[in-house]
What we know:
143 residues, two-stranded antiparallel ribbon, 2 strands, 34% helix
Amino acid sequence: MNWVSKHKLPATKAIKYKGQPCITPESLWGALHATFNTTLHHQINVEVFDKIGSKPTSNWVPFLKEEFRQTLVKCNNSSALGSDKLMWCHLKAILKQDACLTHITNITDACINLGHWPNYFKQSSTVIIPKPNKLAYDDPKHF
Length: 143
């Protein structure tokens, strides 16, 4: 069973790259990567970085709880679920409790201070948003 049939996607709706349908995660990744990372193998002149002087570093200023709350207020309560299935409205409700907010800001500050960003934070989902007047989405360039 291939990835398309396992996920109950009709093969006729598969994205096509170089005339072939992308029916596995690997072929889909390859098509998207080749389409949107077109400068990947271009030569660059790294000597330009030698002209940039070094800047002094500074210590991380810990997150302020109020700053965190003010930022959350701006987040849309009806946005799409993340991989953890939480929406912004859930996080806002949880972080109204000061103890929870303290733990979250401590974790965030620790990640930055240690220079460690957990793999979980590096995951994302991509959603294709239909554009007006597009008849088909079988080519990555149509997104």
